[in-house]
Amino acid sequence: MRKQVCGVVVVLMCAVSLFWASPAKSAEPAPYVIGMALDLTGVVGSIGTAEKRGFDYMLDKVNAAGGVNGRKLKPIVYDSQCIAVNDVKNAKRLIEVDKVTILSGFTNIQGVFGVFPLVAEAKIPFIMGTPVLATGAPPPNPWVFTVVPDQAMGSTPILVNNLADRGCTKIAFIYVDFIFGQTGLKWFQDTMQKRGLKPAAIEKYAMNAIEMDSQVARIKASGADGIIITGGPADVIQVVKTAHNLGFTGKIAAEYAVVSPEFLKLGGKEIEGLVSSSLRAIAAPDLAPNDPQKKIAMEMYNFYTKKYGDMSLYAAHAWDMTAIIVEGLKKVDPKLDPSKPEDVVKIRAQFRDGVEQIKGLVGQNGIFNFSPTDHIGLKLGCYVPVVVKDGEWKLYR
Fold this sequence. Notes:
Blueprint: H1 2-26, E1 32-38, H2 45-64, E2 73-79, H3 84-96, E3 102-105, H4 109-122, E4 126-128, E5 144-146, H5 151-154, H6 156-165, E6 171-176, H7 179-194, E7 201-205, H8 213-221, E8 226-230, H9 233-245, E9 251-254, H10 261-267, E10 275-278, H11 294-308, H12 313-330, H13 341-355, E11 359-362, E12 367-369, E13 384-389, E14 392-395
């Protein structure tokens, strides 16, 4: 009799347990899994760290509001350590092992190019924070999108126009002999021609060069009254210091790769007055009240500066990547289950098609209007000129 009673109690306890456990399991549908590779450590680990902060902020915000289609967004993040081959390894792992729904992040230009073939083969959407898609050119494959404008829209022409509008008629160009610098040279020459100006001088330097004295001396000898530099933060600072040491008194601008808190700290008073270009959030308080991006730029700026100090545009890139992921997923059939391999294939395809339909999405990098032939979705004017003033990035007026 005692054994029978014990048996009944156990059965009842199991029943109660199942009663309470079942609703909890069924109430939480499978999430959309977003795979990311970020440079969290390494030479420019500050970039990936800032991006992750931006992703964390946006994903928490989206999930707190119920997610998308009743499903949460679940990130899986790996550190690429600023090593290009690690981007490829991480992408392969995210696609083949983690079976993620979408790829995002990735800031190493060389690494991104290695990921493209994997994305095309797996037919998985790839939303990047890297300016590797070219204005006016079709995307390398239909699965690749970026939130960052290339130099044609976000940098070189803005700086040429800025210097010319400030009275410079003999503008010189000095660039790092790498894809970023070579692309900048192309758009520099194109914009100068459109303005009816001839370059005062064109100089280049090798990757990791530690002195540019001869190049800068030739620029000064050319009679240049303005210089545009295309390179990374450290070498731009070196060019600026060299120019000052040689007595150059003209105006100096540098392409948008330098816009970071680290550049301000490294450059100090040497870079005061230097002009670059950036998305609006870097100088959000200076924007006009009627600027269509003012509201979200201030939200990003306030969140980041209050918690981490100087604003980082890489956190703003993460905002846009997340916003596009959300808008793309809204166009996916909500009944498709991302935990089922056969449904993931459909989700990816519907998401990709959905992103190409996004119009008028107000983001940090600009107002996005994608199409089957335009996977950047931005236009010239999406970025604004900014200037180093009193050790901070300010909107250039």
